[in-house]
Structures are given as structure tokens and as C-alpha cells.
Design a protein that fits this description.
disordered N terminus, 10 helices, two-stranded antiparallel sheet, Beta-lactamase, five-stranded antiparallel β-sheet, globular, alpha+beta, about 20% strand
């Protein structure tokens, strides 16, 4: 006669009970939502899968191609879907440009990092704000010099990974500009209070000597929050370069994108028209 351990029998019973419980939970759609657990949040392991299942990608490429072929001049465009964490459309994104005041995005990013680390005092905050809010402010040039031109280039290229950007020469491309805007959006180096300051600098840009929001931002209605940085160089009769890069927030549908538009010899009104078309596409109008 073979003796049977009561522990083995109990284990078998326990397994049967567990399997039955799991089957019941699965049948009721509750296998990942037991009442005592918190709902899955962005940043948890399953969040990207949930997002991908719930959010439909927007097909920007036909719109971007159509706009680009009609406006003349030179242009480079990147549209990045922040919610799906993927590029949504590109046009000539590797072409390098004189980026004018967009170089300030790299200087300001490092400036705020220095404040967060206690390397700079809060006396620099006004200058960091103006470098974004009023594009003709000389603040970024002063901050750039204080950082050291070689130092900031080393940080941008080797620490932050922007291989196509030369800050002192104000040269970059649409891919790198989009990536620095994505860093601002994800803000791994900043506190929430710093993020709020940056958002205000990019969103509220009243007309001073110039209208800083006459390009891409002016194409959107009040239904879209446009966190923008502009860079331009007026040639007397036309724009030598006119650039906009913006984080777009659609509160009604909780969608977020980056749009970077770098151009040569293209009127800013044409860039505004691109903004209008993007809004209509995203909102399905």
C-alpha cells in the first residue's frame, strides 16, 4: 500500500480552488482589476499597451506631403505623437538649417538644469524666461557665454545626445529640434514648478516689438494649447529662415503632439495655414 501525504492532497485541492477563482475572474473581465489594486497609470508596465489599444494614430503624412509640395521654398517637418511615443510624419527631417533663435532651446534647457542642481541661483530665472518668451531677447547669448561655448556643446552632443546640433554655429535639423522639445515635455530633469515656468514662457507670448506667434501658433484656435518657440531671420523682402516648434495640447480629446517646421523663403502665413490644417485633421473636422 502506498501512503499519501495529506499535504500533497491539500496542495491539489488548493490548486483546483485557485484555478477556479482565476477562471471566474477572467470570465468577469477582472483578472487585472482586483478591487484592492489601484488602476494602471501611465508609467506602469502595462500602460503603453493600454494607450496603444485605446488611442488611434493620426495619419499626418498625406497632409504634410501636400502642404510641402505646394508652398515652395525649402522646408523640413516632423510631427511626433507624444501619446503613442512615435513619429507620425516627416518631410526632409535630416536637412540642416541655420536655426536662428531655436538654439536657445538647448541653452535654456541646460540653464534650468543648473538651477535645479543648485549650480545657478534664481536670479537667472528672468533671463531664462525671456529667452523663450521674447525671441529677440539677448538673454540667451549672455547665458551661453556664462556656460562656456565648448562646455554647452559637449553637454548637448555627448550628454544629451544631439549629434546634429552645433549650438555656437546655430545649426541643427528638425529631428534634433523635435527631440529637445520631447525632453521639455517629459522633463526628466525638472521639478513641476520649473515645468510650469517653461510652459508659461512657451504659451503666453504677448506682442512686443514683434508678434512672436504669427506663424504656426496663429493657425490654431483656442481649442488647442500651443507651447511654441519661434526662430526667424528677415531678409528684407522675405524670410531667410522662419522656424516654429511647438508642443500641441488638445484638451478636448486628451491628445498631444510635437510639430517642428523649419523653412527657408516661406512666408509665415503659410506655416499658420499648416497649423489650421493640423487642427482640423486631429479633431476630425
Amino acid at each position: 500500500m502506498v501512503s499519501r501525504s495529506p499535504y500533497k492532497s491539500q496542495t491539489i485541492v488548493d490548486c483546483i480552488i485557485c484555478l477556479g477563482l482565476a477562471a471566474c475572474l477572467f470570465a468577469n473581465g477582472a483578472i487585472f482589476a482586483i478591487a484592492s489594486q489601484e488602476p494602471i497609470r501611465i508609467g506602469h508596465a502595462a500602460s503603453k499597451i493600454e494607450i496603444a489599444e485605446k488611442i488611434q494614430p493620426v495619419d499626418f503624412q498625406p497632409l504634410i506631403d501636400d502642404w510641402a509640395t505646394k508652398v515652395g521654398g525649402e522646408k523640413s517637418i516632423v510631427v511626433y505623437d507624444l501619446d503613442l511615443d512615435q513619429t507620425a510624419a516627416t518631410y526632409n527631417a535630416d536637412k540642416t538649417y541655420n536655426i536662428a533663435s531655436l538654439y536657445k532651446l538647448f541653452v535654456v534647457y541646460e540653464g534650468y538644469r543648473k538651477i535645479e542642481r543648485g549650480q545657478w541661483g534664481e536670479d537667472k530665472l528672468r533671463c531664462l524666461d525671456l529667452a523663450i518668451r521674447e525671441s529677440n531677447s539677448p538673454c540667451a547669448e549672455s547665458l551661453h557665454a556664462q556656460m562656456g561655448r565648448d562646455t554647452i556643446q559637449n553637454i548637448v552632443e555627448n550628454e544629451l545626445g544631439f549629434k546634429n546640433t552645433r549650438v555656437a554655429s546655430i545649426i541643427s535639423n528638425a529631428n534634433d529640434i523635435t527631440k529637445i522639445m520631447k525632453l521639455y515635455y517629459e522633463h526628466p530633469d525638472f521639478s513641476e514648478s520649473t515645468v510650469e515656468k517653461i510652459k508659461d514662457s512657451m504659451l503666453n507670448q504677448p506682442v512686443t516689438t514683434y508678434n512672436w506667434r504669427q506663424g504656426l501658433p496663429s493657425g490654431f484656435s483656442s481649442r488647442v494649447n500651443v507651447y511654441d518657440k519661434v526662430g526667424w531671420d528677415w531678409g528684407g523682402k522675405t524670410w531667410n529662415v522662419y522656424h516654429d516648434t511647438a508642443i500641441l495640447e488638445f484638451p478636448e480629446i486628451n491628445r498631444h503632439f510635437i510639430v517642428t517646421v523649419l523653412t527657408q523663403r516661406i512666408d509665415h502665413k503659410k506655416i499658420a495655414e499648416l497649423g489650421t490644417r493640423i487642427e482640423k485633421l486631429v479633431l476630425g473636422e
